[in-house]
Amino acid sequence: MQFDELLQNGQTLRRRCVRGRYAPSPTGSLHLGNLRTALYAWLQVRMADGQLVLRMEDLDENRAVEGSAEEILDDLRWLGLDWDEGPDVGGPVGPYTQSERTEIYEQALDILRQQGLVFRCYCSRKDIREAASAPHGPGGVVYPGTCRGMSAEEEEKRKAEHPGRKPAHRFVVADEEVGVDDVIAGHYAENLARDVGDFVVRRRDQFFAYQLAVVVDDILMGITDVVRGVDLLTSTPRQIALFETLGVEAPRFWHAPLMVDDSGDRLSKRDGSDSLAQLREQGWDAPRVIGYLAATLGWVDEGACLSARELLEELDDDELHNPTSSHPAPGDEKGTG
To answer: In the CATH scheme, what is the homologous superfamily, with its name and number, of domain 105-208?
Structure first.
């Protein structure tokens, strides 16, 4: 199908009911922070009698770990979390694996290009970092617009300066504030021109960037609500700009607090911190894990053991909208150590 048909299909699904998604990357075992986000997304959708989409975000195939996708699905099932559409069960808006959706992203990029909102950029990160005109924003160096508006002659000169370097594609941002009223985190806004600059939608290695792929997928999959970690809050204004450019209202965003370890550092797949496999080896069952995750959000007492379905029955809207965040070490919570 063409992009317009896919868009109409997604909008039809969006009008029918609440549609949320959980979108892990198959780059290793899920840690407890990933699982808590999955639980949160599942609860938000099930409380609204909606539909949950499981999407595998494997755009960067160089980082994908063989067998990780299957392990993620097994972990979620073991916890008692189910989904209505996904790579294993299918659905009306597949494929549900990003590496199989590149033709769709190509169509979206063409739409932006036709609007004059995408340009080729030959700058490396070092070029941008060392550019005398590069300002600094909240997230670091802001792209200074070096390649925006190049003439054909200027582009040939840039290509000659960097032979063999493939260009990235950047989205042209407006000099205006873009904000979100997040269900959990409250209001957040950025002036994209001042704080971010024209941002990458297709990388130099030709992989599509997260910012574009996630917006296109959420549009075409009819997503009404996005539950994810607060570390992605700063990506939201860029994504809202893309939603608006593609003519679709942005979904509701729920940016949940992150889980951290005893040192206050966020959990990471890279260090294997608090993986579900480790807890299962120590004899934890699913109700104990669900209870622990819920306790870190202030929803149940420490030491509680309950299934995901039992938590769903106990939780009310106010608690879902207003989580608290504490971080007892696994195994140290009352009554379970």
So the answer is: Glutamyl-tRNA Synthetase; Domain 3 (3.90.800.10)
pLDDT, residue 109, reads: 98
Residue 265 zone, left/alpha/beta (φ > 0; ψ -120 to 50; rest): beta
pLDDT in tens, 313-325: 999 999 999 998 7
The rounded distance, in Å, linking the Cα atoms of 323 and 325 is: 7
Contact 255, 229 (CB under 8 A): yes
Q: What is the pLDDT of residue 337?
A: 30
Q: Which two tokens stand for residue 292?
A: 């622990």
**Helices (H) and strands (E) in the chain — how many of each?**
13, 11
Which one of the listed residues 126, 159, 269, 334 is annotated catalytic? 269
Instruction: Indicate if 159 belongs to the active site.
Output: no
For residue 198, the SS3 value is coil
Question: Which residue, among 117, 205, 133, 204, has the nearest Cα to 168 in the 3D structure?
Answer: 204
- Dihedral angle over CA of 32, 37, 57, 75, nearest 10: 50
Note if the pTM is more than 0.90. yes
Average pLDDT, the chain: 91
pLDDT tens per residue across span 255-268? 999 887 655 556 55
Residue 227 pairs with which residues in a beta bridge?
254
Eight-class DSSP state of 253: E
Q: At what angle do helices 32-47 and 68-79 cross, to 10 degrees?
A: 60
User: Does residue 95 have a cis bond before it (omega within 30 degrees)?
Assistant: yes
pLDDT, tens digit, 9 for 90 and up, residues 127-168: 888 776 667 767 678 999 999 999 999 999 988 988 888 999
What is the residue extent of each domain of the chain? 105-208, 282-337
